[in-house]
Design a protein that fits this description.
There is one protein chain. This protein is of the alpha+beta class and 157 residues long. Helices cover 36% and strands 24% of the residues. It contains three helices and seven strands. It has a seven-stranded antiparallel sheet, with helices on one face. Strand 5 and strand 6 form a beta hairpin. The radius of gyration is 24 Å and the shape is elongated.
Length: 157
C-alpha cells in the first residue's frame, strides 16, 4: 500500500477587497474579472505555511506594494509594473529563485513594521471619526435652518 494521498494545496490563495481580512478563493474561479482583479480585489495574499507568505496590494495611487515574509524576515518593494508583480508572484509559487535573487527588495525593520501596523490601526479608527464629523456638520446645518424658519414665528400670537 502506498503513502496516503495529501490533497491539501502547497500554496493557499487569498484575495481581499481591502475592507476586511482576506478570504481563500478557488484559483480556477477568482472573481468576476480575472484579467483585471485590482478594482474588486486590491490585494492578493499567497501563503505556504504560517511562516511564509507573499502579498501584492494595489494602492490608490496606481502602484503595487509587494511584501514577502519568511519567519522573522520581512521584505518589500513598490512598483507600477503589473507584469513585474505577476512575475514575482509566479516565480515564488514555482519556487524559482528569480524573485528573490534578481528583484531589488528592501528589508523592513521590525520596529518600523510595528509602527506601520499601529498607524494603519489608528488611521482606521480616525476614518470612523470623520464620519461623525460629517454627521455633526449636517445636524448643525439642519438646526441653523430650523432657527431660520422659526425666527419669524411668534409663539405668543
Amino acid at each position: 500500500m502506498g503513502a496516503p494521498y495529501d490533497d491539501s494545496p502547497e500554496v493557499v490563495v487569498h484575495v481581499g477587497d481591502g475592507s476586511d481580512a482576506p478570504r481563500a478563493v478557488d484559483p480556477a474561479r477568482p472573481g468576476r474579472a480575472p484579467t483585471d482583479p485590482a478594482p474588486d480585489h486590491p490585494f492578493l495574499l499567497l501563503t505556504r505555511d504560517s511562516a511564509e507568505r507573499i502579498q501584492a496590494r494595489y494602492l490608490d495611487d496606481g502602484t503595487y506594494e509587494v511584501e514577502h515574509t519568511a519567519g522573522a524576515q520581512n521584505r518589500q518593494l513598490y512598483t507600477s509594473d503589473a507584469l513585474l508583480v505577476r512575475d514575482i508572484v509566479w516565480s515564488w509559487i514555482q519556487r524559482d529563485s528569480w524573485w528573490s535573487d534578481t528583484v531589488a527588495w528592501t528589508t523592513v525593520d521590525p520596529e518600523l513594521a510595528e509602527l506601520h501596523a499601529l498607524h494603519a490601526e489608528l488611521s482606521g479608527m480616525l476614518d470612523g471619526m470623520s464620519v461623525l464629523d460629517s454627521v455633526t456638520d449636517e445636524l448643525d446645518s439642519a438646526l441653523a435652518r430650523a432657527d431660520e424658519l422659526l425666527g419669524g414665528f411668534d409663539l405668543d400670537e
